[in-house]
Amino acid sequence: MAKIISQLSGVEVTHYPKFYNDEVFCQFELNGHKFEMTEPYGDSSVYDVVAPEDLQPEMNYIAEHFEKSRPIKGGDFGQRLFFTFNWFLATAIWIGLISAGIWGYNRVFS
Fold this sequence. Notes:
Blueprint: H1 2-6, E1 11-15, E2 24-30, E3 33-38, E4 48-50, H2 56-68, H3 77-109
Antiparallel strand pairs: 1-2, 2-3, 3-4
């Protein structure tokens, strides 16, 4: 979202997303007005662009930009890498616990 909005002429992104952000993950200015991008409930499937005042022309301009923009292929590499690392780590821990449980059981009763 931040990459796409930064491509819009007249936009200055004032806060880029970080690895772990709050619900408001990006802030930008357009024509001197401040906007925020939010991810309600940390859902990752819905994003909102919000303004503190009624800015219908600017919101239409932003909406048209998103409609015309091509999707960014490949998604967020960092998020995928984090997910993969956590999956491998959790799998290794489970295998270790199961193996220790099986071997520990056999040693006690043999």
